Input
Amino acid sequence: MSEGSKPRLLRALAGETLDRPPVWFMRQAGRSLPEYRELRTRAADFIAFCHNPEMAAEATLQPMRRFPLDAAIVFADILLIPRALGQEVWFETGEGPRLGELPPLESLADQIEASTGRLSDIGETLSRVRAELEPDRALIGFAGAPWTVATYMIEGRGSDRSGARTYAYQHPEELDRLLDILVESTARYLVMQARSGAQVLKLFESWAEGLAEDVFERIVIRPHIAIIEKVRAAGIDTPFIGFPRGAGALVETYAAKVPVQAVALDTQASAALGRKIQAGGKTIQGALDNLLLRAGGPALDARVDALIEQWNGGPYIFNLGHGVLPDTPIEHIERTIRRVTGR
Output
């Protein structure tokens, strides 16, 4: 692949400082788009939607047809791995995910090898999307990071994670074993995604906030390093983006220790923090407030301009600090992308 045809996102992840940053949005495929809402009505439930390669590929491609984005991210969910390991997972309308009782750790460990096969539909989705996506637009695969996935497996639903954090203190050996199981299954899943066409892999640590430094080291940094080492040992050199959302000052430690090519920053990240990570040799991504994207207006324009000005002197990917909210006006998304890309 020549440099001229290499996707802009991959050039940024290789450390290039570009004339303008590549742009894609977390949750760019989803409920903010009317075509997605119509497509969703055809699936029996959300998990069936994720495991239907034809429908999931269509959902992945919908925002790429509507907006001049530089990358697509596969339509899937971070809780497909617990289900593949044998824990009951379902989604309550209007309330979010629910999980059954955490199975015995021995049972989960016995399902690691089989879990990748149970996720093969996601690989087919990636292959379908890569076949349709233009060569200059990148395709991103992803997984939930072990601690974030573990919080749902332990608590059975989204929450303030206090139950999972208490479990981490009271049952450290059991948590470490659960994280090790998730490291192995996640690494295998990401290898499969890369072999199916993903050109970038992202680890979503959505619940990295509120952790003491030693706990952050143990349950966030250590598992992320282990996943990447296992993926590399399988012969995969696909670049990684790590997203330790809510980690605050510990993001700097994460950037220094985890061998990702890029660190995604949430809304609270300062200009100085981003520049420091860039100076350390890594690309940064983020950190537009998704609430501001929804609100729109002059404040949105000003913040878009400020983010580009403060970080475009180094390798930078324009994105949000979290996902697109379902009620975000499409015209706000269009206006923001136009401001970044000039088209």
